[in-house]
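**User:** Here is a favour to ask of a fellow structure person. Please take any protein you like and set down a full record of it. No explanation is needed for now; the record alone will do.

**Assistant:**
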Amino acid sequence: MLSLALIVNVLSFAYSTQLPQQIDKCQYNDAECIRENINKIIQLYPEGVPELNISSFKEFRPADLELIDTARVGGLWITMRLLNQVIAGMENATVRQVSGFQRDPNKSKIDITVHVPRLTHRSSYAMELRWLTLVQTNTTGACYAEFHDVNLSLNLKVIVRYQQQRRYLTVYQLTPQLQLGSDNSCMMSKANELIKRYGKGNSELGLKPLNAIAAEDVDIVNSPGAVYIHFILKNQVVYGFENASVTYLAGFDREPELGKLEIKLHIPRLLIRGNYDLLARGVLLNTNSTGTTTSDFQNVRLSSKIKAFIEFRNNKRYLKIYDLTPTMEIDRWILTAENIYKENSDLTLLLVRVINDKWLEFWNEVEPAIVPVHSRSIRKHINEFFDANSYDELFLPDV
């Protein structure tokens, strides 16, 4: 995973005035041009360009990794480190999608999707283990791993620094997601068939309606003080999941608790309707209002990492999800809100217009509060289905 830094190394030139001679500059936000340029750099310069600070793509040597390190107390402890790591194969990477390289990259989300046919990881390990007085060991050895059909999704957070009246992009946080190739086409097809056929629910299958999902209240802002604001969304209902398509599904194997479960959905349009309470006091304006809101999310891509365990009932296995961590990408957010400033309807319209004009900046601020709350509603829906259906009965028996 640390080889992702190689991609960031290329991106450092997105806002630089100096590029290799064979690479033409792109317009801001021209995603296709930027994608092609990154791929050209990888293809033309697999050994890197030292004079431009582009490192080799063929090998990357990350720092030593502390894989396991339990406290060395009591009768049982283990430590394991990976040393002298070498990751190879990024010279064959292909960037498939790029977004967010606008004139002001601080105000957008930068996402990059990369496919790598084959990655290899070589290292040595050092392990110390004690188990009561029965086993005590201090060993070293070689490690080797191969990863095939690798898909990397990178989310970058950046700042622009100024030097000699020029702007330079600096990546300060990179959040990767790794997917390894697998054939889950049958399960994806059946999941999409269930959504399409039973969007309004089916009690016999334990499927609750997907066309209207009740969600918990959300505290968007709660900032007490002399100048304060408290904004809460209540009685929310989410519409649109009945039109979802499963685009990726992984981890639902014979022993699902041992692997990584992941689901990706595409939803053309999600609507969230509900009420709000707003209490605010500032230097010029005070308000205490309630009203209705509608959030219209367009072209939604929802990716969820899932943690689950198997519980046994009546000699059958049932899947239980205890954690669902979603990431959400949207093309547009349109907010409708009434009566925010009940004394001044023009001010209400102005505020809503500003939010919709600068929707991405506002969404980046409120997303951390909204998405986790709605993920609990999704988790509850999925768990009700798995609670009503034995996990093994969802699959064909072994031949």
